[in-house]
Amino acid sequence: MSFILILPIILPMIMAMIIAQKNIIRKDRLMAFAIFSTAMTSLIVFFIMFKLPGTSLPILHVNEFIDIRLKGDGLGFIFAGLASILWTLTSAYAGVYMKHEGKERYFFIFFLMTEGVTMGIALAGNLFTLYAFYEILTLTTFPLVIHAGTKEALYSGKKYIIYSLFGATLILFGMMILFSAAQSLEFTAGGLAQLLKYGQPDLLAGAFLALFVGFGVKAALVPLHSWLPAAMVAPTPVSALLHAVAVVKSGIFSLVRMTFFIFGPALVMSMHLRAFLLSIVLMTIVFGSFMALHQTHLKKRLAYSTISQLGYMLLGIILLNEDALLGTMIHLINHALIKIVLFFCVGAITYSTGKKYIYEIGGIGRKMPVTMMCFSVASISLIGIPPSNGFVSKWFLGLGAMSAGQTLNIVILLLSAFLTAGYLLPIVVGAFFTKTASDIADEENLDPPKAMLIPIVVITGLVITMGIFPNPVIGYLQVAIEKIFL
Amino acid sequence: MNIIGSTPLLLILLLLLSSFTLPFLKNPIKFSLPVLGALTILSWIHGLLFIGGEEYTIQAGHFEAPFGIMLRVTAVEIAIGLLFMTITTLVIWFSASQFHREVGKSQQKTFLILVHLLVASLLGIVYTQDLFNGYVFIEVSTLAACGIIVVKNKADNIKAAVKYLILSSLGSGLILMGIAYLYALTGYLDMTFIHEALIPIASEKSRMILISMVLFMTGAGIKSALFPLHIWLPDAHTAAPGASSALLSGLVIKAPAIYFLKICVLVYGYEMINQTAFLQLVLLFSGTGMIVGSLFARSQKTLKRMIAYSSVAQMGYIFFGIGLGTPAGMAIAVYHMIGHGVTKATLFLLASTFIDKLGKKDSASLKGVGREMPFEMAIFSLCGFSMVGIPILPGFISKWNLALATIETGQVWLLAIILVSSVLNAAYYFPITINGFFSEEDGIKPNNNPVAKVPLGILTVLLVMIGLLSGPILSLIEKALI
To answer: For the segment A105-148, what is each residue's pLDDT rounded down to a tens digit?
Structure first.
């Protein structure tokens, strides 16, 4: 049965090829077909997650290095499960939204392909497989970024490609050194034992730094973040997915894999890179928040907010202890859910009214009550007010910082939470408590069609659930994380 | 000796014979293509039967080694020989439907005669174990190569061919001087005999040996377009008709490189080349070439010129592998010749197809061409991806193994060259793919000239297979080079 592990990767790709055929899938059935494909993928992922955990599937073994291998483990399944659910909901949302952007078929082809590639990243069994999918991810998301086809879109796409390739080159450099030291790139919980034995410390530190920065490009590490706000020219469902799961979270996930499954916490600890990395990451958190305060373009504000939130996850990684890693993984899930709601809401506003800027949306809460309620819930969760899910992840990150003896980090976390409130709450307040903008004052109800509204409400439900009942997920993650720190 | 075992000799002789038969035929392509196809199949049979076998030599005449000429057959020679035969056949097959449009029907016969002669001499260079014999074949190949450039009767072509001829003659002259030095030192022309005779006098005559090494490097460097001796290449490869460019870039520049590699391994041996500063020179030139070649390629406006400059960068990789001076490095040099041979031949065929279809030569005119010719553009992108180094494709394998071999020799800083060069590759291949598929600009009206898709398909399959089977290929080659 281990062959089933490849299905979440292959199935969306096949569906993408089918959806490309104009005479098989009619234009009005695109959305239904995309929902069907993504839902099937989710079902398969959850089937594997619960019925066949720990399977491994060698696909292509050329030699020790070129060895494509899939392996399911706790962290991978969490990422794959999260991605597949969000993909399903996004395909419903996008089915309606993309009607006003145009080129729906083109969108869905790459949308489905990207899902397959993301599953590949989640289920990769060694660093080489991960790297291969990571490179392909750049290629499949590129057409989505430049969807509009305008000069600005092409320029942003170019920026995205250049940044990504720069990162990939650094990753390749790191892998070369790693492989020459360890002769293996297999993911092993707690790191490869050979590295400690044979590696030269200086070279390995160089490799770690190269890999950290390389994967950090996709995780929008400051100062390599500027592709992310630029990529906001993409249609909203694309931005939402790029932010929530596909690209930035792949970067974080790869960093987790690289730090804890290749190098291992003990080795990284001995490298004395922490002070340097901490300063970059703290800068990312604070810089992102401050930049978000400045933006009046709604999507850009959310984009900078993402950069800051990704900083939290990076912080959890380099603190190198159990609680902090748990915090990173939970925040990966929570932020994905929250951010996708925020983006969907902003997309809904643009869809119904064509408005894109904060100063244009006064009083919109009265006209789009459901949308803006969801937006408020998500905002409060992102700030981290208990009992929201954002509080849960920050709690664990704080615990991790405490046990690493880094109290400064807690101050930064609190400061950033304060700033988060500073850039999200004005939107909520403005939407509900100011005078309704004159051009929409006469409209009855501007909430988007059901196909767009249902995903928003469902994910908001998930956000609330994750806040009140986080324990099943925490328990599942703890089992996976314990192995690393044995 | 059985018939299959002497295939290499047969190949050379039959190609020469068929080349002299061609002038008397009315429809040369109908004769040439089956002959090339049959010989390719023969060489594949020979190659597949050889796998795992011992290396052996073939006596080309009545005399034993020091006096007669020997052909050496190992995995290296067979791999390169297969490459040459296969690419030639596919290129001729592809160009059968297109070539006459580019240069006119009357020239096709001349072209085919020259191609047969060219491949025979290239195979000779690859297989021979005799230095002077190799030199003779190199001269023949130069003349034939000049011929397939000027077969398109334009001023540009003649200019390019003359430039190539002059520089090439200089290169041959240097090689000949190198041979003279070695002959004066040892009294032999056979590679293994020279090696035996050189060992006892290696320390005493080290300067003379170093001079001969540098002579070979410069000579082969001119012919293989090692930076900064590449100046003839862009003109020649751009001016030549599509099929000729594919052969020139895919095969012709590889032959002197393999000759040079054989001299390094067989004549001098690893110990001798590693004792001198000569390898540092090779590394210096090839490293600069890898970066500067790509920079030049990026600034080109015409598509073929860009691909030609990319060849300069890629030849850098090959010499870089040789310059590492280890069996692993040499093996990657050979592997890269194979990978790059297939890729570059495909790229040139596609470039000529685009030019033929659109009637324009600059790469900017390719905007939106992917929607009109998705199959061709997809293959072009795949080749581009290989050059950039997307995993599993041959370009990536070369880079990866080159990097590992570099780390092994303890020169980690050289990794920077490999990485920078691969990023630069992306800088000029990606824009074409992006413009081809995603650019909004329309208004391209390709004509309905037929394109032979089967050979393109086979080349693509070969490209992917070379990547997939890189493990066994590399280990076979490396075993032969120790």
So the answer is: 888 888 999 999 999 999 998 888 999 898 889 888 888 888 88
Residues B285, B205 share a domain: no
Residue B239, Cβ neighbours under 10 Å: how many? 25
Give the pLDDT score at B419.
86
Mean pLDDT (chain B) is 86
Asked if A380 contacts A388 with a C-beta cutoff of 8 angstroms, the reply is: yes
Q: How far apart are CA B227 and CA B287, in angstroms?
A: 9
Per-residue model confidence as pLDDT tens digits over A356-376: 888 888 788 888 888 899 999
| Domain co-membership, B344 together with B473 | yes
Q: Are residues B347 and B403 in the same domain?
A: yes
Looking at the structure of chain B, the number of domains it has is 2
This complex has an ipTM of: 0.73
**Quick one: closest CA in A to B428, which residue?**
A162
| Cα distance between residue B182 and residue B189, in whole Å | 8
Nearest to B422 among A68, A169, A203 (CB): A169
| Region for A373 from its dihedrals, namely left if φ exceeds 0, alpha if ψ lies in -120 to 50, beta otherwise | alpha
% residues pLDDT > 70 (chain B): 97
Separation of alpha carbons B290 and B421, rounded Å? 6
- Cβ distance B404 to A179 less than 8 Å, yes or no, reads yes
Last residue of a domain, one of B248, B275, B302: B275
Of the residues B215, B248, B275, the one at which a domain ends: B275
Confidence (pTM): 0.84
Q: What is the extent of the structural domain holding B366?
A: 277-482
Give the model's pLDDT for residue A212.
92
* Minimum CA–CA partner of B403 in chain A: A176
Residue ranges, chain A, pLDDT below 70: 243-244
Match 């170093």 to its residue by tokens: B210
Considering only CB atoms, which chain B residues are within 8 Å of A139?
390
| Cβ contact B438–A146 (<8 Å) | yes
Instruction: Give the 3-state secondary structure of residue B19.
Output: helix
Q: Cis check for the bond before A58: say yes or no (omega within 30 of 0).
A: no
Q: Tell whether the model's pLDDT for residue B1 goes beyond 60.
A: no
Min Cα–Cα distance to chain A from B356, Å:
28
Q: Are residues B328 and B284 in the same domain?
A: yes
Q: Do A62 and B403 touch (CB under 8 A)?
A: no
CA separation for the pair A125, A143 (Å, rounded):
27
| Contacts (Cβ under 8 Å, ≥6 apart) of B106 | none
